[in-house]
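Appendix B, record 7
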Amino acid sequence: MNTATISQAVETLVAARQNRMLLPELPPSARPSSKEEAYAIQNEVARRIGAVTAWKVGAPAPDAEPSCAPINQATVFFGVDRLPADLFHVIGIEAEIVYRLGRDLPARDEPWTREEVLDAVASVHPAFEICDTRFATYGSQDALSHLADQANHGALIIGAAVPNWRSIDPVKQPITLDIDGKRAADVVGGNSAGDPVRLLTWLANVGAKPFGGLHAGDAVTTGSCTGTIFVQPGSRSVATYPGFGTIELTVQ
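Structure tokens (predicted):
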């Protein structure tokens, strides 16, 4: 890995956050040329910003390698139904499923099994992730630059815990998303990765290793079930998961 590239990208992205200045792009000398460099950048930016208490993980297909990003405590919100719009450059809302851990899954040589990972889960929640960007135009950069920029994370809003969550199959879970009373998405499962538990297991074994693994209290959001819906300030979003829960959010 090119340490000069990583260092320059980290300084650029941290300054953009601190000064709330949008970047037209990363300087050519600061652009990651591999996933390893992109992850090194996002991880160091996360360490510089503050405590990591959550993660996002996803994959474009059921057999595709997942990707992830650490999420800092400052952008994780429990049980709120309103956030100020000036927190964001763009507001791309996604209905997701969050797993919250009740005990540590530390990094180790022997992979954690699916059942071991599920046994560490304390609760499951409906959630919204708001996608955002530190670049002037959302989606304008190469994929590695967006991965380095916290994989387009803006905020994670976590709803109430689901009772009897082990009886629910997330792949067969119906979900609707309404924006200002109009249906924007109506899916069953809806996650491009298929089974979100596969993502959670990969994160425990691979993605979270630079932070010593996953920790009790960490929340993991497992990818969009509805696609990204860009909304305007003042819009009211309601995601309904029959038999699972409901989450509502106004960004105003």
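Remarks on this record: The two ends are 42 Å apart (CA to CA). The mean pLDDT is 97.
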